[in-house]
Amino acid sequence: MHRKELSYYVSGFFTQYLGNEAGLSINTIKSYRDAFILFFKYLEEAGICKISKLKMDTLNADNASGFLDWLEQSRGSSISSRNQRLAALKAFCCYVARKSPEESALCQGVLKIRVKKAPQRPVEYLSVDAVEYLLKMPDRHSTQGIRDLAMIALMYESGCRVQELIDLRVGDITFRSPNTVTLTGKGNKARVIPISANAADIIKAYLTSASICNMAHSVFVNIYDKPLSRSGVSYVLDKYGHMARKARSELYPSKLHPHILRHSKAMHLLENGVNLIYIRDFLGHSSVTTTEIYARCNPELKRKYIEQAGSLITESVEEYSESEKEALIDWLRKNI
């Protein structure tokens, strides 16, 4: 039986499988594409194989591991980026193994490579006072200022990801009580988030000022009427962060990144007693385990967890079944 080349599987993976069968988002597909571009670059730089001579055997565990180390050591990639590239290779190997079982042994070598654990950094977020002061920075009397104010207000109120903000269309916002915004997140999953009348009024004022009324039009655009880029959003936020820091340096870190408003909203909801399950749905997390990072990073919330845990423990521990004891221990281990 004639063995197919690596290029055959790569072509099918990107042109048919990822978008059609797996239903992955454009951003995930781009991330996978970048992973393969870097992998091929590594193979050439390391003298392993030229792109024009790629064979299926080239995708083996040794080359994949060498590639991951190269990302960290030669390109200075973070552990998170390294793991993202590995996820792309593993997704490809799963695809190949299903399509051609005879390649399973080769693919299993890559699939057995473990993700690298990264030290967990504390979640960076702003206090309520810091968010309120930041919202005072844009000049709401200019079109650009009202745009920036609307953008910052919406990022905080909705807890949206940067890409969700960039992809937002006018038709995704409902200006009637209750005012809502429909966000499309990872895996093309949509969620409807309520926003305050204040935020809705600011967004309406911006759209009117910018003469944007087409339902299919991007909400946040630059001076060329093109959707803001990720770097554009970062620039705007850091600009106002710099302005706010001049007057209230104690409230702000050295640089504001777009995700900080999402983190801030999550922390403020949690501090006000909102259930983690609701916050998970609000943020669009696939698992509450992801949301739990917010509970673990705040000493006061951790204390509340300990108190809650104490209320679960009675004098007669014998009344708990073995499975209940295990569940309680697992809960404590995750949250304290």
UniProtKB/TrEMBL annotation:
The record, for InterPro entries, names: CB, DNA_brk_join_enz, Integrase-like_cat_sf, Integrase_catalytic, Integrase_recombinase_N, Integrase_SAM-like_N, Tyrosine_recombinase_XerCD
Q: What is this protein called?
A: Integrase/recombinase
Record domain Core-binding (CB): where: 4-97
UniProt keyword annotation of DNA-binding present? yes
Molecular function via GO: DNA binding
Q: Where is the Tyr recombinase domain?
A: 121-307
The alphabetized list of GO BP terms reads: DNA integration; DNA recombination
Q: Which UniProt keywords apply?
A: DNA integration, DNA recombination, DNA-binding
| Tree of life domain | Bacteria
Annotated organism of origin: Sporomusa ovata
Is DNA-binding found in the keyword set?
A: yes
